[in-house]
Amino acid sequence: MQVVSDTAGADLGAAEQAAREFLLALGVVLDEDGLEETPARMARGYAELLTARPFRLTTFPNDEGYDELVLARDIPIRSVCEHHLLPFVGVAHIGYLPGERILGLSKLARVAEHFARRPQVQERLTKQVADWLGHHVRPHGVGVVIEAEHTCMTLRGVQATGSRTITSTLLGTLRQDPASRQEFLDLTGVHR
Fold it and tell me: What confidence tier does 7 reach under pLDDT thresholds 50, 70, 90?
C-alpha cells in the first residue's frame, strides 16, 4: 500500500497577517463586530481548501477476473480557480475497467480530492485524476468526467449564474472502444 500525501505546510500566522492586509487594502473595516476574526478564519479556510489530506492507496487482487465497468458517480469536488482563487464546486464521475487489481472505492474520491486541493483549472484536474489512476492502478481503461460551477464566472465577470462546465478524460479501452466509451458516458448521466 502506498501513502499519498502533500507535504506543503501552511504558515497560518503569516497567512492571517496577509489576509488582514489584503482586506484592509480593499477597504474592509476589520474592527466592526463580526469581522475581527475574519482574517484568521480566511487563512484557515484557504489552508483547508489548498491542503490535500494524506491517504493510503488500497488495491486488492482481482481474483474473480471482474472485467466490467466500475463507476462512482457524483463525488463532491471543490477546488479554487488558479486565476482568481475563487472556488469551483461540482461533482466528479470516475470509472475504470479493472486489470489485475481492483481499487478500494473510497480511493476514487480520495484521488479526486488530492488533486482538487490546490489552485487548479478543471481541465488539468480531470486529466490528473485519470492519469494518476491509469499509472497507479493499471486498469484497462479510465474515465473521469467533472461537472462544476465556477464562481469566478458566476459571481463576477459575466455573472453567468447556474452555468456548469463539463470536462472529460478517457484513457485506454474507454477511449478506444466506442461501445465502452458510450457505456461510461451513459452511466455518468452527463446526457441529462
Answer: very low
Please say if 83 is a catalytic residue: yes
* Burial zone of 1 (CB within 10 Å; 0-12 exposed, 13-18 middle, 19+ buried): exposed
Q: Would you tell me how many other CB atoms lie within 10 Å of the CB of residue 81?
A: 18
List domains and CATH numbers for the chain. Answer: 2-50 (1.10.286), 59-188 (3.30.1130.10)
The response to whether 84 counts as a known ligand-binding position is yes
Does 140 belong to an annotated binding site? no
- pLDDT of the residue at 121: 96
Model confidence pTM above 0.90: no
Handedness of CA 59, 137, 2, 116 (dihedral sign): negative
Nine-digit cell string for 169: 478524460
Q: Residues 35, 41, 47, CA angle at the centre, nearest 5°?
A: 155
- SS3 of 132, please? helix
Task: Using DSSP, state whether 94 is helix, strand or coil.
Answer: strand
